[in-house]
């Protein structure tokens, strides 16, 4: 299965021969189809431009709505020193279990 590919000149000659074998009606249909395909691609840049502009507008509105003046974010909430009630709300069985296992020493 180690067959070499035909050369570029051979392929060009085969293409020229095949174009001569086609009827004028077929060639006209091929030209019409090629022209229609290029015409469809011609207006595509407008869609890209419209999408890019709407993206820029949406980003601008988003930046304005988020309030870009405060870039550091909200200040962290610090618990007061006197508020120790959360420490005593834990289950006392946890401490009994830790005392029975060797996990407390690790």
Task: Label this structure with key terms.
106 residues, mainly alpha, 5 helices, elongated
What structural category arises from helix and sheet content? mainly alpha
Morphology call: elongated
Number of strands: 0
- Which value, in Å, is the CA radius of gyration? 38 Å
Strand-residue proportion: under 5%
Q: Outline the biggest β-sheet.
A: none
Low-confidence stretches: none
Mean pLDDT: 76
Would you mind describing this structure in some detail?
- By secondary structure, the chain is mainly alpha-helical.
- The protein is built from five helices and no strands.
- It has helices at residues 8-21, 24-42, 44-66, 85-88, 92-100.
- The two termini are 66 Å apart.
- The mean pLDDT is 76.
Summarize the structure.
The chain has 106 residues and is mainly alpha-helical. It has helices spanning 8-21, 24-42, 44-66, 85-88, 92-100.
Task: Detail the topology: elements first, then pairings.
Elements: H1 8-21, H2 24-42, H3 44-66, H4 85-88, H5 92-100
């Amino acid at each position: 299965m180690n067959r070499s590919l035909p050369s570029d000149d051979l392929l060009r000659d085969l293409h020229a021969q095949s174009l001569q074998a086609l009827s004028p009606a077929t060639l006209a249909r091929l030209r019409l189809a090629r022209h229609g395909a290029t015409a469809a691609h011609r207006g595509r840049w407008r869609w890209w431009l419209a999408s890019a502009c709407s993206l820029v507008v949406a980003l601008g509105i988003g930046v304005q709505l988020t309030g870009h003046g405060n870039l550091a974010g909200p200040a962290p909430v610090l618990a007061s020193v006197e508020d120790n009630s959360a420490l005593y709300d834990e289950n006392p069985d946890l401490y009994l279990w830790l005392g029975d296992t060797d996990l407390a020493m690790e």
